[in-house]
Design goal:
The structure is a homodimer. Chain A is of the alpha/beta class. Chain A has ten helices and 16 strands. In chain A, the strands form four sheets. Chain A has a seven-stranded mixed sheet with strand order 3-9-8-7-6-4-5. In chain A, helix 2 runs parallel beside helix 7 (244-262), helix 3 (91-102) crosses helix 6 (225-239) and helix 8 packs parallel to helix 10. Chains A, B: It holds the Pfam family Alliinase_C.
Chain lengths: 386, 386
């Protein structure tokens, strides 16, 4: 259908709801339930040293965090850690830049290496690279149209932020390329775990795995020891390591998740990934209904797949809803703005303003308010067509 | 005197002691005493969000950490925080780069801004800048010899790492310059607090203030809101904030220090800064004796000054010992290496290899072993001269 006006047919007098960021507050419900079991106590004398384990490439990583990361991937089956190196960072953000620098030449190249990712791509890759204005790496946009015969690094993000799709590399170039796999969302509350990821450089983050975004813990699983050393050096020079309080807490929480899954009598829907998947499934069902009725947007269609972890087939329940505006609406972000909904528009993701991204992992109140405002649209549509 | 050989006159069969880094383990004794009082409990549901206080320029900073930083500076009287902005980072390392980028032009300049610091200067400034190979800022070495008519940023570090001296800016250039004051060691266990520092951009770190280096908490006190915003944006793009577990713990520990100082019946030598100053004073007295007897090195001389915080005069007790080799020893780091002491040689600090830096804040065992090895030197000297 063609929507007749670029403005929403309703005016909203309520306060603005912010669905622009992927702040993982939805998981709070689960962690409230498990609060005592996952609490950590840190005493005054602990964690004075910069160092954690000088026998490890990543010398600032607590051994218990390394063990917890390996155990979690083993339990979930989403990534190969055997014979690989783990490097931690202050969020996967810091490791993203560490990976780009580690994969670039040690000597300043004639031209910076081109970093590309297929559009729509994560909106922060570009500003994270641009701010440094480095002679080593530069943002070069959409991997799908990259045709330069120059060295490049392709970032493959699956399930992809913003659209939740499962992807592989797409660059077709005669030049040498390296890959960085950003697997922030490859966890079984969001998407079926169909395979053990086994790539040269894989990035994960505690923020999206368990919802503890305030802890700023990211990790990379790296095949080549030289790349792992260079990434560690980048984190050393950027922040002299990673907060140990957060490391200790991440280890505790990952351990608690694994303990629960390894108890014989556990009930899947009460365990972390099952519990959170059910929340997301329910939200997605409600959102799909509301979007369909609104006649203003369409959603990406996801096919079902068998999840080796959950032993069942399900659709992807992405972290974000990626909406395409129907014809007649040119700017999705502005349209949302008129509904007093803060959302992130397509251009940041390398596509047109007729796309817009909304978080699916925010607070219940905000999500319910989103449904309410979308239902106001559909009521107007019905009234217009009757 | 002229030392006859470039090699130490003893061979050491013991294991290597590492005095190369400034790992602040000496403060562990104090924190063991205060362990329970300073312990923090963090529950499973806490710190899910990226955000802390969206009404603050530094949106990821916990309000309690901001308050604790302001209170600590108020109690110690070492820096003006009133009408200034506080920006936190993952260590002051991250804030150092954030400050350089914030003080540089938003558009890529024709030539990168030159970053200089008077030699001997902190050995990590250069590699921290170099790794990014940025078109915005570049390391340009010793501020004392800077004579280019190009925009620059001078880093003033006082008391200075490595030599503990109190300094001001030294660049004489017709070009426009900005200053960054690195005040990591301007705390009353190391040096008399003679004034409230009041500069445009001041950097501090929890690592050297209380000895909690593993927490990776640094803060900047910034005069100009636009600079504070740019620094916050740099931290946002580099790591999406700072670990909240560490923030909460830093707030608790700073608060405990202040509480103790504000109790009426407190005894200075049992309070944090007094207790730690006494440890450092004792170490320095022993080291001075050992160095004097060795006849191989000389130490910087420090004058006494009145400390407004402690209400007494004392010398500086720097974090590092900065040794100058007597004539005849060309390479202090190698010389120490033959004593199986890992130390950091002069060239990293922008001076000759006849200088070498040793930490004064490491473990007791290592410090005592240093004294033992130095005493072996003096025994040989005495035997040679008799």
């Amino acid at each position: 259908m063609v929507v007749s006006k670029a403005s929403p047919p309703v005016t909203c007098s309520d306060s603005t709801i912010n669905l622009e960021k992927g702040d993982p507050l939805v998981f709070g419900k689960y962690w409230k339930k498990k609060s005592d079991e996952c609490s950590v106590v840190i005493q005054g004398w602990e964690f004075l040293s910069y160092l954690s384990d000088t026998s490890n490439v990543c010398w600032y990583m607590l051994p218990e965090l390394k063990g917890a990361i390996q155990r979690l991937h083993h339990v979930v089956g989403n990534a190969v850690t055997q014979d690989k190196y783990i490097v931690i960072g202050t969020g996967s953000t810091q490791l993203f830049m560490a990976a780009l620098f580690a994969l670039s030449p040690s000597q300043t190249p004639d031209h910076p290496f081109n970093v590309v990712s297929a559009a729509p791509h994560y909106s922060e890759y570009k500003p994270e690279i641009d701010v440094l204005r480095s002679a080593v790496v530069q943002w070069a946009g959409d991997a799908g149209v990259y045709d330069k015969n120059e060295p490049y690094i392709e970032v493959v993000n699956y399930p992809n932020n913003p659209d939740g799709t499962i992807r592989g590399p797409v660059v077709k170039s005669a030049a040498k390329g390296n890959l960085v796999h950003d697997l922030a969302y490859y966890w079984p509350q969001y998407t079926p775990i169909t395979h053990q990821a086994d790539h040269d450089v894989m990035l994960f983050t505690f923020s999206k795995c368990t919802g503890h975004a305030g802890s700023r813990i990211g990790w990379a699983i790296v095949k080549d020891i030289e790349i792992a050393k260079k990434m560690t050096r980048f984190v050393h020079l950027g922040s002299h390591g990673v907060a140990k309080e957060s490391q200790a807490r991440a280890a505790k929480i990952m351990g608690a998740i694994c303990d629960d899954y390894q108890k014989f009598e556990s009930i899947e829907s009460e365990l972390f990934f099952g519990y959170c998947k059910n929340i997301l499934r329910e939200r997605w069902e409600k959102l799909k209904g509301a979007i369909e009725k609104s006649k203003v947007f369409t959603l990406t269609k996801y096919s079902r797949a068998y999840c080796n972890f959950a032993n069942e087939s399900f659709e992807t329940y992405p972290t974000f809803a990626w909406l395409k505006c129907e014809e007649g609406i040119e700017n999705g972000e502005s349209y949302m703005g008129k509904l007093k909904i803060r959302a992130r528009g397509g251009p940041g993701f390398g596509v047109g303003p007729n796309y817009v991204r909304l978080t699916m992992i925010g607070m219940d109140d905000d999500f319910n308010e989103l449904l309410k405002r979308l239902s106001m649209l559909s009521a107007i549509q019905i009234s217009n067509s009757s």
